[in-house]
Each structure stands twice: as C-alpha cells, then as structure tokens.
Amino acid sequence: MTKSEASAAKPSATNHDITDRLVYPLLSKLVVLIPRSVHPNTLTLAAIGVGLVAAGTLALSTEPYSLLACAGLLVLWILLDSCDGIHARNTSQCSEFGGFLDHFGDALGFFVLQAAIVYRFDLHEPLVFGAMLLRQALACWTYIIRIYAGHLFITRLGWSFEIYAYAAVMVALFYFPDFRLQIGSLPSLDLLGTVLLAYYIAVPMTLLEIGLMVLASRKKSALATKLP
User: Fold this and answer.
1) Interior/surface letters 127-140, b for 16+ CB within 10 angstroms, e for the rest
2) Which of 31, 131, 182, 215 could form a disulfide with 199 if both were Cys (CB 3.0 to 4.6 A apart)?
3) Closest CA to 190 of 128, 142, 115, 110
C-alpha cells in the first residue's frame, strides 16, 4: 500500500462523510507533493485562518459579491482542514497537540461562522438559536463519544459536508436572494431559514447514526476478542 492510499483513510476515525469519501482520494494524491518540511500544524493554522477570514468577509461586507467570496474561502478552508491530517500521516508527524489544534480550530471557525451569519442577516428568531444550540450539542456529543470510545465517529452528514453545504448556501443566496419556502399554512421561510430548519431534522438523525456506529464498533470488537 502506498502512502497516498494509506492516507485516504483516517486510522483514528471511522469516517462516513460523503464529501470526504469523494474528495480524499484526490487530495491524497496532491498532498504527497507537499514537502516534509511543511509541518502539519502549519496547514492547520492556515485552515483556521482561512475559516476566520471567510467569516469576516461575510460579516464585515454588505456587498452581494462577499457571499461568493465567503463560499470560495469556505471550500478552501475545508480542503486545508483535510490536508493537514493526510500530510501528518504521510510524514509520520501525527501528535496529540496536532489533533487538539485541528479540532479546536474546527470548533472555533464554525462558531465564528455562525456568529457572522447571525450578524450579516440580522437573525434573532428563536428558531435560529435553537438550531445553533442543537448543532453545538451535536459537536459536544461527538467528542464525548470519542472520549468514551477512544475513537472518532464521523457520520455521512459530517463536518466536511456541512461546510460544503454552507458554501453552496452562500452561492444560492447570491443568485436567489428572494427565495421563499411555503409549506401549507406554516410561515414562509427564506433560504437561510430553510437551511436552519433542516438542522432540526439532520441533527437527531446524526445523533442516532453516531449511536449506531458506536454500537456496531463495540459489537465488532467483542467478536474480535472471542476469536482464537
């Protein structure tokens, strides 16, 4: 097995994210071109910086083109966020601090992005804050499970999928600023409100999927210990 093939998987995690499964094989071939002298934490810090700039671009500009700029920066953020781990495994530079920095940067960047969305679009409805609290609860649950199981479980609608989805939403907001969703007699929702409403459906499903992944992993481990 070549280094690029080995890095396409995450040995410290079970990753079912549908976008990672599409992007990782290509990234693995590109990351091998990064010199060993470039430390993985440098890529992590670059990813954090790009994520913060994406949020700042959204919050500090009212120009429509800032939505497209934010979308491009979000894609760059998640690509860099994927590259650091692959590069660390390729060059045997994995570390506890690197893992902490990666996860801390993800949480920080996502929190700032959500704050930028609230600020840019002047959101103050309970639906919005409920969705965001639900999302943060999911993040906490994911890492509690990691501490409990000693393993990170990433679902099909994982972190990468979420950031790519936000990038797509920014593009959609640029091209369809007057979008409204009407379901029966319920209040109509704009595009961003529709996305936030989706959290109320996606988060419980994701919590359930994490639980099923943990149970499957424990069952597999139990069977392995019984084998001679």
Assistant:
1) ebeebbebbeebee
2) 131
3) 128
Identity at 70, one-letter amino acid code: C
Domain 12-226 fold: Four Helix Bundle (Hemerythrin (Met), subunit A) (1.20.120)
Reported confidence tier of residue 201, pLDDT bands at 50, 70, 90: confident
> What token pair was written down for 187?
């209040």
Which alpha helices (H) appear in 16-64, and where do they start and end? 18-31, 40-60
Distance CA 206, CA 208 (A): 5
What integer is the mean pLDDT of 204-215?
A: 75
Q: Tell me how far apart the alpha carbons of residues 60 and 74 are, in angstroms, rounded to a whole number.
A: 16
Closest to 198 (Cα-Cα) out of 171, 175, 166: 166
Indicate the pTM of the whole model: 0.79
**pLDDT tens, 116-165?**
988 898 877 777 777 777 777 777 777 777 767 666 777 777 778 889 98
